[in-house]
Amino acid sequence: MPSRKIDHTEIERRLNDLPGWALTAGKLHREYRFADFVSAFGFMASVALVAEAMNHHPEWFNVYGTVRVDLVTHDAGGVTELDFTLAVRMDDLARGHAVR
Amino acid sequence: MPSRKIDHTEIERRLNDLPGWALTAGKLHREYRFADFVSAFGFMASVALVAEAMNHHPEWFNVYGTVRVDLVTHDAGGVTELDFTLAVRMDDLARGHAVR
Amino acid sequence: MPSRKIDHTEIERRLNDLPGWALTAGKLHREYRFADFVSAFGFMASVALVAEAMNHHPEWFNVYGTVRVDLVTHDAGGVTELDFTLAVRMDDLARGHAVR
Amino acid sequence: MPSRKIDHTEIERRLNDLPGWALTAGKLHREYRFADFVSAFGFMASVALVAEAMNHHPEWFNVYGTVRVDLVTHDAGGVTELDFTLAVRMDDLARGHAVR
């Protein structure tokens, strides 16, 4: 069931497969760095389409080439499968764009 | 000169003409609320074009229909004319979209 | 069933409720005019999210403030309920933006 | 001078350095193919920022993962340096995204 809250131990175990991501304040957190605003916003536009199609939306902050993301499933009161799915999709979309 | 730092008294005076905006931690701050992510991101896309054309980029946070903005001119070490110009353009673009 | 092809007579009847749209070369066609590229692209970004979430994508052309749209359901070989749904959503999103 | 019309011979010579582009009906033309709409629209969002900052806008058509572009400088009545500059920027932004 996608919206089942995943426990802390399981989250940490799965984060081993997601370099760059950490569990921060109960949310999946990552910072992406792009060369400039043009690249960062192109990435955000692609992610926005994916998020709307999933009906699962990130908390995200941007300034210039930096995009900071926090993923959590509010309805479930924690991190769920949806958050991991969106994290993987974001990494795919950042590949070849993100500076680090 | 667009990049001259504007002093605190002058900022507060000019904020009288910008309802919704406040001086917060040395930056022009506003929160926009839209009906949903679709409206919020359409607004962000328009603003992104304006910001890139100005070569002056917001610090902004989004989750679902909420967009929180902080404007400051890092090179000038404070709020400048550029920040007020971008604030007015953002309000124009939000008009008719933003719920409040 | 969303993907059932709607016949010509029924399409014309329903277009009475969609001012600005016409049946052109077997597709629902409309031209939107916005004040500038900034407004046109903000509209397109909102529509892009909706289209991806519907998994139903427009054929569209843009130059500056003009957006021309053709809607058809390729799998069904004609206009279906999906096209009317997307047309109505696009009109909603253009409202307050489009010059005409 | 950026807005000087470039003659036909010179355009053809310079197109040797722009694989994928051709002179079609007096405009620089290229078709990009992306894996899906998500990638195509992310590319379009990046290009939109660049175009607005240049105050030079493409004529472009999109359906799903396909983006067809025509570049011309209307004020000059032909192809100018601006069109070549935008073509190169688009190729840069498509790199690593476009399937072909």
Describe what this molecule looks like in 3D.
The structure is a homotetramer of 100-residue chains. Chain A contains three helices and four strands. Chain A is an alpha+beta fold. A four-stranded antiparallel beta sheet of chain A has the order 1-2-4-3. Chain A is globular, with a radius of gyration of 13 Å. The mean pLDDT of chain A is 94. Chain A binds chain B through residues 37-38, 41, 44-45, 48, 51-52, 57-64, and chain B through 37-38, 41, 44-45, 48, 51-52, 57-64. Strand 3 of chain C pairs antiparallel with strand 3 of chain D, so a sheet runs across the interface.
* Assembly state (oligomeric): homotetramer
Main sheet specs of chain A: 4 strands, antiparallel
Largest interface, with counts of residues having CB < 8 Å to the other chain, equals: A-B, 16 and 16 residues
Class inferred from helices and paired strands of chain A: alpha+beta
Gyration radius of chain A, in Å: 13 Å
* Order of strands in the sheet with most strands of chain A: 1-2-4-3
> How far apart, in Å, are the first and last alpha carbons of chain A?
33 Å
Shape of chain A: globular
- The amount of beta strand of chain A, in percent, is 15-25%
